[in-house]
């Protein structure tokens, strides 16, 4: 299927599909006229990539883990490198730290708004 249909089927923009290709995350086939040809396994890979991006993993880590993932709709993993897993754990810890900071800021704003309601209009 061409890029427009692949975009519609996957729910990922054509621009994102081109980005995934530029980053080496997918390798669509090519028609004789040079147009991209997305097969079902490439669409499945796009769905995995989108899921990983939504989880917050950076493209660099996604590129590293993709060879260990199956292309089917049921994503399974093969053996993953211990260094890679340590890096994902570290990324998750940094994310948890950011969440804690944002939660504290949200609580401070809630307290401010509560006090403002008591003293104002």
TrEMBL record:
<keyword id="KW-0805">Transcription regulation</keyword>
<dbReference type="Pfam" id="PF13411">
    <property type="entry name" value="MerR_1"/>
</dbReference>
<protein>
    <submittedName>
        <fullName>MerR family transcriptional regulator</fullName>
    </submittedName>
</protein>
<keyword id="KW-0804">Transcription</keyword>
<dbReference type="InterPro" id="IPR047057">
    <property type="entry name" value="MerR_fam"/>
</dbReference>
<keyword id="KW-0238">DNA-binding</keyword>
<keyword id="KW-0678">Repressor</keyword>
<dbReference type="InterPro" id="IPR000551">
    <property type="entry name" value="MerR-type_HTH_dom"/>
</dbReference>
<dbReference type="GO" id="GO:0003677">
    <property type="term" value="F:DNA binding"/>
</dbReference>
<dbReference type="GO" id="GO:0003700">
    <property type="term" value="F:DNA-binding transcription factor activity"/>
</dbReference>
<dbReference type="InterPro" id="IPR009061">
    <property type="entry name" value="DNA-bd_dom_put_sf"/>
</dbReference>
